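Protein chain data
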Amino acid sequence: MFLSLVAGLGNPGRDYESTRHNLGWVVLDAFVKKHGLAWKHAPQFDAEIARWDVGAGRTRWLVKPLTFMNGSGRAVGAVARFYKIEPAAIAAVYDDLAIDLGLIKVSTGGSAGGHNGVASMIEQLGEGFVRYRLGIGPKQPVQMDMADFVLGKFTPEQQLIVNQKLDQNLSGLDLLLSRGVAAAMNQLNRRDPK
């Protein structure tokens, strides 16, 4: 299945820029830059979008919803309906608390796992989209409120890991888009050999 829409989930505004919950935006911004693309404001979708003509008459749309995390599905759903893109041809790039920082997991279907952006996408699109999950866990300290943790900024040590893993996140996304879900799962879902 050709993935023709890739959505990075995050929150707009300076207050959210370096938070754990915006890791999907960080990765998609870097991906757009790597491929020489540019974001354009698309108020009709309440999103920023970048058009990527990948050859053979195929176009891929990269999307950053500006609806805040909890309304991500509204923007992604609007783009998908306009360009007649099926859920199975959509990938969401987002932070996941259940995965250790620096690791990636690719999956299809399943619950939102407490992630409001994913819940919004399921509500608008159903469960058939691909998930490109970027680890931000584990939650430390354990008793900290989940919302406070995901909306908090990375510690300097964590930010170093995020920076070191950025190229790997981008090449993993390239792998998913060029070779498909099965190949990406096979290569990316293994834990880092330490």
Summary: The chain has one domain: 5-188. The longest helix spans residues 156-179. The mean pLDDT is 95. The beta strands are 5-8, 40-42, 47-55, 58-65, 90-100, 104-108, 130-137.
